[in-house]
Design goal:
This protein is of the alpha/beta class. 52% of the residues lie in helices and 15% in strands. It has one domain.
Length: 266
């Protein structure tokens, strides 16, 4: 039996989840995802930090295809507390498999919405990753759109294992509730998983290129393109070098057509 099929049967799958080529997707709206994140934060605060850190992953078709080749990455996704459908291809796949996700839940939009909730509730965010200075610029933007938001700290750092102890000490000193990590996939998600048991926060979420967009370093697609699922085309236009990464899309569609329905009904 293929590894992907075996994992889809052995990993816990709630009524709100579906497996796309062996990779879990939670069929939640952004509002529902934010409610769950806030619940996790509240539980940890009430428990005096006794509750372990919970991982949040936002996935697209590139993640799904990378997970076919990388079992550690697949486990990190499938065992996370939340797995959100960031890419329109993943949302389409859930519709094709008959268990549709209600909407696309992007890391960038979720981070901005989480910042507003955090400002209202007094949660503290730590922004880790991206190029030097980018996380700080993203934090400044988030404070503008979410007045009163506490940014506990920002740091570029590195996903290299030999820097983990120093980074975790920084986060511990900052007393953050939420850690956002922008090292790109799969590095950011594997970094979180490796350190999950000792991260001194309630939630750790991989956010990919969110800081670049929030800081203005990269321009996002017009809203109409985002709503119609064409943001990938705009990014390809702005960054032609991404064409190699885009080859994951036809591969994903072929595999989904060949194995998708069978895998989710076996």
């Amino acid at each position: 039996m293929p590894v992907q099929q075996l994992e889809s049967m052995t990993q816990p799958c709630s009524p709100q989840s579906i497996y796309v080529l062996g990779v879990r997707v939670d069929r939640l709206s952004q509002q529902q995802a934010l409610d769950r994140i806030e619940q996790i934060i509240t539980q940890r605060r009430a428990g005096g930090d006794a509750e372990p850190c919970q991982q949040v992953v936002t996935i697209n078709t590139e993640f799904v295809m990378a997970a076919q080749r990388n079992p550690a990455f697949r486990r990190a996704i499938n065992e996370a507390a939340l797995v959100l459908p960031d890419g329109i291809g993943v949302v389409w796949a859930t519709h094709y498999l008959g268990q549709p996700a209600p909407e696309r839940v992007t890391g960038t939009d979720t981070l901005e919405a989480l910042a507003k909730r955090s400002a209202a509730s007094g949660y503290r965010l730590y922004l880790l990753g991206a190029a030097p200075g980018v996380a700080g610029a993203a934090g400044s933007y988030l404070r503008e759109v979410a007045p009163g938001l506490e940014i506990a700290g920002t740091y570029a750092g590195s996903p290299a294992p030999d820097q983990e102890d120093a980074i975790i000490e920084r986060i511990k000193t900052a007393r953050a509730d939420v850690l956002c990590v922008a090292y790109g996939a799969p590095a950011q998600d594997l970094w979180i998983r490796r350190n999950l048991s000792r991260l001194p926060v309630a939630v750790a979420m991989g956010v990919g290129g969110a800081y670049d967009f929030l800081s203005g370093r990269q321009r996002r697609a017009p809203r109409i393109m985002r709503r119609t699922g064409l943001e990938w085309l705009y990014r390809l236009y702005r960054q032609p070098w991404r064409w190699r990464r885009m080859t994951a899309i036809p591969q994903f569609l072929v595999l989904l057509g060949l194995r998708g329905r069978k895998q989710n009904h076996d």
